[in-house]
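Example 3.2
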Amino acid sequence: MTSRVESQAEHDTTAVPAIVLGSAKLGLLEAILVLLFSLASRFLDGFVETIVCALILAIGVAAVTILPGLWTRALTIEGIAGAAGIGLGAAGVFLLIDVTVLQNIGTYTNRWHEIGGGSNWWYHPVWWMVGTFLPWMGSWILANQTARNGRPAVLTALVTTLFLTAVVGALAILLGFPGAGWTLGTFAVAVLPALALATILSAVGKRRS
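Structure, written as tokens:
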């Protein structure tokens, strides 16, 4: 009983200062990656642009998905919720940087404006939702891994999600899902259902407390 309590104490670190600090760090990282992505979109073309933007996007998705769960050492719903809270706070930090800096220094291309009907504000609601969903699912995966093996397996989580993203994206294209194509955007969207599937798979074989 004592060892169980001690084990629990090592996880689910969700003190408010830790959540605020995590939100600030992750939000700043998101802003840096968005800046790099926007610069790559502006100054690169063709295959090189696709590769560089895909790499930046992959780093960003991996960071937002995994870091909050590692910072809270998620094991139960407490740590999972704390990680989602970091994601939500980080979205707020990023959007503050976005409206005060990024939208005013001319980094976004005309394509960015065209997607949003001439406005840079179109993606803000999406950012809040996705920025919370990714760490919620990611921390859930890490918690399931910890419950099963005693520790999280970050590489396994990332590889599984990447594989399922490729599968979901390819199926969407082959089945003629509206708007789906062999583009970076399609596979960026495919991350969302893929991550949900990876979370379900991560629960298989988990030890029940």
